[in-house]
Design a protein that fits this description.
The complex is a heterodimer of chains A (182) and B (394).
Chain A lengths: L19 E2 L2 E2 L7 H23 L2 H18 L6 H26 L18 H5 L4 H11 L5 H8 L3 H20 L1
Antiparallel strand pairs in A: 1-2
Chain B lengths: L2 H14 L7 H50 L6 E6 L5 E2 L6 H7 L10 E7 L2 E9 L4 E4 L4 E2 L4 E10 L2 E10 L8 E10 L5 E9 L5 E5 L5 E5 L4 E8 L8 E7 L5 E8 L9 E4 L11 E2 L16 H11 L4 H5 L5 H8 L11 E8 L4 E8 L6 E7 L5 E4 L1
Antiparallel strand pairs in B: 1-2, 1-8, 3-4, 4-7, 5-16, 6-17, 7-8, 9-10, 10-13, 11-12, 11-14, 14-15, 18-19, 19-20, 20-21
The chains are: A mainly alpha (182), B alpha+beta (394).
């Protein structure tokens, strides 16, 4: 793979020296273009994977993750945990995308006939069937079984109580099973 | 394998299949675009706030600057009188009644403290005239000729004594006057408690005019010096003097040479004159075209009949007999003129206000008049007929 050429000067003035620890960015000494660059390179692929399982589209996932990093850039020096912050942005961006798409579909006139479209549930792949679930159920399952987050962390990300997360995961798994048994 | 474990394995396999490559250049472009959007948004917010602030302050400043000026000067952008006194001693309401209101609508030229050009004291009555150049070119509407929009001045005459006042204001187009020109801007009369009136006449004069001499019917001569293009004449008339008196006004050089002359009723009631239309400095001259003041005898050699006072009175009174005049009658000037001038056959009421009579020759004259139902001054041609009588053709 060709080396990635970064144009650091395009990201704005450096606000501090590079301070990347083994775990990522060191709190308190974070900041500056190079730190952001390192964080971006380190987390981009992981976040695209998260967005991909949430949306089912690689292009859409990359686009949403890029926009999420744009949003992070403004607050990179001020947030305590940029990795959690950007993950929250990605999850919210995916939800916003589906909300927007749902609104647009509701406004679209029914002038075409859907034909030849593969039913995601018929592929037999769990990841495909997952896309048929409501977004909150899907997000709860993905964050639990892909990102290995606790129910409390998921609850914080989705803005609900931990008990609700358990309910979302339970009902989502039940529905997945039913779909796969069909 | 548990269902949950299989789900986790498939999700990781799906995520790892993406093989996403970071695109730093695209990210940098997006960051720049977002930064610009936010800057524009902030600018819009600041501009909106500035506009709201400017609108608020503008209204406040406009109110502070305009309203007191209108109140103190009692003038409007119109050429006309905003107040006056009737012949019984009481004050009269401004004719038209909407001058002050229209001044608020057209606040383009505010009238701050007025520089007094001429100040006279006649029988305890103070007569003051002020002149202020307007900062915008204006179109003065009067008469029927179209001329270009021009610079102009607001001329205000204030006549006051304890208990009553009179006065008038007019917008005068400056280029209209020739160097030897003479143009009546305002005239009127303020009744005195002891009887009689103090009459005044404010005239705009050209640059070559040093003074204006007026001769009253009784032979009395009143002279006024030209100051900043203005001449104010004033005098006291006894109670038994005819209100229909006609006096001559002659513009003279410093050496006494005559430049122009005209005839005008003495102490004519205050009258509204033409209308001034404000124009912004950037307005095209074509769109600022206007109707000029009626042609005046400015710069013409002085020629007059053998008895110009009688001729002027006949010219004025002959308006009464025109077909157009007989249809609508009003006013009282001509009835007075009829009794004052022998041989006149004018009716009891006149439908016109007369401003000035200018003799072009011994047998021809221009009379500036205005139907009482109109605010536009017009020019009519008068000629001496074969029977020795002056007739006016409208």
């Amino acid at each position: 793979m060709a080396p990635i050429e970064l144009r650091l000067e395009q990201w704005g003035p450096a606000a501090g020296e590079l301070a990347v620890s083994e775990q990522g960015l060191e709190k308190g000494r974070r900041g500056g273009t190079r730190a952001f660059e390192a964080f971006y390179l380190e987390n981009f692929s992981r976040l695209v994977g998260l967005a991909l399982v949430l949306t089912g589209s690689k292009e859409l996932a990359e686009d949403l993750v890029q926009d999420s990093f744009v949003r992070l850039h403004r607050h990179f020096d001020s947030v305590e945990a940029p990795d959690r912050y950007v993950r929250q942005i990605v999850v919210n961006a995916c939800r916003s995308h589906f909300r927007r798409a749902g609104r647009e579909r509701s406004k679209r006139p029914l002038l075409y006939v859907v034909d030849g479209v593969t039913d995601a549930s018929s592929s037999g792949e769990l990841a495909d069937v997952l896309l048929t679930l409501p977004y909150r159920q899907r997000a709860a399952i993905v964050l639990r079984f892909y990102s290995d987050l606790s129910e409390a962390e998921i609850a914080e990300l989705l803005g609900c109580r931990p008990g609700t997360v358990g309910s979302l995961i339970h009902r989502g798994l039940e529905r997945l099973r039913r779909e796969l048994e069909k | 394998m548990r269902f949950e474990d299989e789900l986790s394995r498939q999700l990781r396999a799906r995520a790892s299949s993406a093989r996403a490559v970071p695109d730093a250049e695209d990210l940098a472009t997006r960051i720049r675009l977002r930064s610009r959007r936010m800057e524009r948004r902030q600018q819009m917010v600041l501009m909106s706030a500035a506009l709201v602030l400017a609108a608020s302050l503008g209204g406040l400043v406009g109110a502070v600057a305009t309203v007191p000026a209108v109140r103190t000067a009692s003038v409007s952008p119109l050429r006309g009188v905003t107040g006056g006194a009737d012949r019984t001693g009481g004050t009269v309401a401004p004719k038209g009644g909407s001058h002050i209101e229209r001044a608020k609508i057209l606040p383009s030229y505010t009238v701050p403290s007025r520089p007094v050009v001429v100040s006279l004291d006649v029988a305890g009555v103070t007569v003051e005239a002020s002149r202020r150049s307007l900062s915008y070119p204006v179109a003065v509407t009067a008469g029927s000729r179209q001329v270009a929009c021009s610079s102009a001045a607001l001329v205000t005459t204030t006549v006051a004594r304890p208990g009553s006042f009179a006065g008038g204001a007019a917008v005068v187009g400056l280029p209209v006057l020739s160097p030897g020109g003479l143009e009546i801007v305002d005239s009127g009369a303020l009744p005195l408690p002891t009887g009689g009136v103090v009459w005044w006449l404010t005239a705009a004069v050209g640059s070559s005019v040093a003074r204006v001499a007026a001769q009253l019917p009784g032979g009395q001569i009143v002279t006024g010096r030209a100051t900043a293009g203005l001449v104010v004449l004033a005098g006291a008339e006894p109670a038994d003097a005819s209100a229909a008196s006609v006096m001559s006004a002659v513009a003279e050089t410093a050496q006494g040479g005559t430049l122009s002359s005209l005839w005008t009723p003495v102490g004519a009631a205050p009258y509204p004159d033409g209308e001034a239309v404000n124009q912004s400095p950037g307005a095209a001259a074509a769109s600022c075209s206007t109707v000029s003041m009626p042609s005046s005898p400015s710069g013409r050699p002085v020629v007059s009949p053998s008895d110009p006072a009688l001729a002027a009175a006949q010219v004025i009174a002959s308006l009464e007999t025109t077909p157009a005049a007989s249809a609508t009658k009003g006013g009282d000037f001509f009835s007075d003129a009829e009794s004052a001038v022998p041989g006149l056959t004018a009716g009891a009421e006149a439908p016109f206000a007369v401003r000035q009579v200018s003799f072009l020759s011994g047998t021809r004259a221009d009379v500036v008049y205005r139907p009482l139902t109109s605010s536009v001054w017009q020019v009519a041609r008068a000629a001496l007929g074969t029977g020795g009588r002056w007739t006016v053709t409208l």
